[in-house]
Amino acid sequence: MSDALERRKTLDPDIEIGPLAIWVGSGKGHSWPWIDLAIRVGTGYEKLLDANGPMVKRPDLIAFFRAFRDFVRKLRHDVVLSSSGSSMRLTLQRSDEGSLRGELWFERWRVNQTLSFALWDGAFEHAIAQVDAVHARLLDAERSWVPQPARLDIRDSAIPDEVQPARKWEPWDSGLGDGQPVRLRYEIDGYGWYGITVWVGEKQGEFGGGYMTDPMGDLLRCALLLVAGQRKAEMFCNAEPDLTFVEFEEIVVRMDVDAAGDPVHHHGCAIRIRPDDHRGEPMDPEFEGVATSPRAVAEAIYLMALEHFRDGAGPWSRPMAALEGALATVPR
């Protein structure tokens, strides 16, 4: 049962800390990385709150679990779990004298509520085991793969300078240079909205979209195609109401001649961000840059995604695993 509301209806609380009871969804059915909660404070005559729906980010919840373990072991004085939309904040505190208390704050549009409740050391008797069980459930078999970047040899993909005297062929240069270093950043702009920033040298471009497309997964699949030798990989984002197309294309930036007089092609990777306003006419790119090589782009996409695996696996485990395997095994 993956929904917090359904778990609350049929199961005991996932986590109990004194009068505080929490049911934790798995995030399935919700836009990554959001997880739904159901929260109750008190039972019977003492029940003051029984609410569904606060959403927290999965990394924030896992960070709370880690901090909570230290709090129970008296390694820290407080621990806080907040929803990114500022609609809920849970605080557990221990004073210098050792007294314990909890506070839960809710806000729903024009209405807000703050509840304080007493805690005691015995209230944590089963809580760490419960937190560990929830943490393990979030890392279920479907999402259990975690990157191992140490096994990769990611380095600057500079184009070697191997100019030899021409025999049958003349050297040629596109005028685009040897390409520039590339870097990407993937950000969660809000519930169901994502933004990607691309840097190629000093150039910067941006694109993104909503939950109806999967830009992270599509970027990983494009990277896999580039490593596999496909000349061009494309994806699009639903930016609502328009679309944004992103192209990665292997191009020849210059040609040298080897000692036998045969051509040696040096490849860069063009990156283009192109809007589409549904009029049917191709539009000029909003951004265009040339990276040092298709593999350099694939490695930059891997490093971009790796940031979002800090707290374990995620819904992109399959394309991420495939890309890591390709980078580890496909020759440069």
Describe the structure.
The protein is an alpha+beta fold and 332 residues long. It contains six helices and 16 strands. The strands form four sheets. Strands 9, 13, 14, 15 and 16 form a five-stranded antiparallel beta sheet that branches. A four-stranded antiparallel beta sheet has the order 1-2-3-4. The protein has a four-stranded antiparallel beta sheet with strand order 5-6-7-8. α4 (215-227) packs antiparallel against α5, α4 runs parallel beside α6 and α5 packs across α6. The two termini are 45 Å apart.
- Indicate the overall shape: elongated
For the biggest sheet, the summary is: 5 strands, antiparallel
Q: What helical percentage do the residues reach?
A: 10-25%
The secondary-structure element order is HEEEEHEEEEHEEEEHEEEEHH
As a whole number of angstroms, the C-alpha radius of gyration is 26 Å
Question: Please, what is the average pLDDT?
Answer: 85
Strand content: 35-45%
Q: Which consecutive residue ranges, at least 5 long each, have pLDDT under 50?
A: 162-167
Structural class: alpha+beta
The gist of it:
This protein has 332 residues and is α+β, with helices and mostly antiparallel strands. The chain is built from six helices and 16 strands.
Per-chain topology:
Elements: H1 4-10, E1 15-17, E2 20-24, E3 34-41, E4 49-57, H2 58-72, E5 78-82, E6 88-94, E7 100-108, E8 111-119, H3 127-138, E9 172-173, E10 182-190, E11 193-200, E12 203-210, H4 215-227, E13 232-238, E14 243-257, E15 263-276, E16 287-291, H5 294-306, H6 317-329
Antiparallel strand pairs: 1-2, 2-3, 3-4, 5-6, 6-7, 7-8, 9-14, 10-11, 11-12, 13-14, 14-15, 15-16
Helix pairs in contact: 2-3, 4-5, 4-6, 5-6
